[in-house]
Amino acid sequence: RKMSKSLGNGIDPMKVIEEYGIDALRFFLTTNSTPGQDMRYIPEKVEAAGNFINKIWNASRFVFMNLPEGMKVEDVNLTNLSLADSWIINRLNETITHVTENMEKYEFALVGNELYSFVWDDFCSWYVEMSKTALNGTDEVAKHAAQSTLYVCLKAIVSLLQPFMPFVTEEIYDLLPGAKESINLESWPTVIENVTACDLTAMARVISAIQKIREVKIVNDLKPSTLIHIALKDLDGNTIMADEAMSAIIMKLAKAKWQDILEGDLTVEAIQGGSLYIPSSELSNPEEEIKKLEAEIERLKSEIARSTGILSNQGFIAKAPAAKIENEKQKLEAYQKQYAVIEERLNVLKK
After folding, report:
1. Cβ count near 119 (within 10 Å)
2. pLDDT of residue 324
3. What pLDDT, on a 0 to 100 scale, did the predictor assign at position 351?
């Protein structure tokens, strides 16, 4: 229902600001607006914006705690990057490109989604954890590379978010080495050149595998510290050979040893861009596995039906950008391949 003075259902912005903060309200208003459409006020989204700001603040504290005392901008060096460092910088470049393009189109909702995903998921949830190995280790070169990466990412993050949450970004920016009088005097972030390339698809698969391994351990009542063995295959069923750097990340974050080949009865799990295999002997309950796979089959059926429906809609085909249509086709193909793998494993278990 629209706000109405006679109905008395208006929202007092001062009360919202008092509860969640002015930056939270501003972020909600700017990133939930769609050109040509009215916007619904959703208190839960304002609260989520406040949680997002807390996440950024906590991440910035982690960065400042790990930067060397007296660090200068000239000390920043993005050579000798680890796989994790290279991955987050490449993801940052991707984010800068997408955000800049959508800012120019006034697509602030898309900008908000892009920034939220990069900051919360990639930087806070993954890179911060990955960086701890180098930061707490004895290799000074790796440590300096991680410190430089943290600095570069945090500076870019607050600069990209400044139009949406000017107060908290100003406060964080002021604490950065080499900060100008105000963040408003900073240039808009641009893509960082000459950075070691990183296979973002492969890293996305590894991250998905780590998430699935953690989930499998919980379902099977295994301690997080329990070592299990895994193998990975792509969507076409081809074995993905173990990569040393990626294997180290999986071992550190999921306590799992990646091997090229596993023998015997294997449990299969669908992950982004492929499948994860674990020796069934290392897990505990076949009946629980059947239930879980049946639930996954139903989920994939639903996704296949949804995607097929979209691609069968002539209105969508006629109006949607070619890139969006192609993306939906790729999703459908991935769902169908995952379905085939899970169905095969389910049939084996039921026999």
Report:
1. 22
2. 85
3. 67
pLDDT tens, position by position, 215-225: 999 888 889 99
Q: Cα(99)–Cα(95) distance, rounded to whole angstroms?
A: 6
Q: What three-state secondary structure class fits 347?
A: helix
Residue 103: its pLDDT value, please? 95
Give start-end residues of each CATH 1.10.730.10 domain in the chain.
13-185
For domain 13-185, is the CATH number 3.20.20.80?
Answer: no
Rama region for 213: left / alpha / beta (φ>0; ψ in -120 to 50; rest) = alpha
Asked if 75 and 68 touch (Cβ cutoff 8 Å), the reply is: yes
Distances (CA, A) of 120 to 56, 58, 141, 152: 8, 11, 27, 16
Instruction: Give the count of beta carbons closer than 10 Å to the beta carbon of residue 326.
Output: 11
pTM listed for this prediction: 0.78
Supply the pLDDT for residue 346: 83
The string of DSSP codes covering 296-319 is: HHHHHHHHHHHHHHHHH-HHHHHH
The ranges of the chain with pLDDT < 70 are 1, 3-5, 8-9, 35-36, 284-286, 351
CB atoms within 10 A of CB 187: 7
Indicate the angle between helix axes 43-66 and 128-135, nearest 10 degrees: 10
Cβ atoms 178, 73 nearer than 8 A: yes
Residues 341 and 13: their CA atoms lie apart, in Å, by: 52
- CB of 204 closer than 8 Å to CB of 250: no
CA distance 115 to 222: 35
pLDDT one-digit tens code per residue, 321-334: 888 888 899 899 98
Q: Are 301 and 339 in contact (CB under 8 A)?
A: yes
Name the residue among 190, 194, 203 with its Cα closest to residue 84: 203
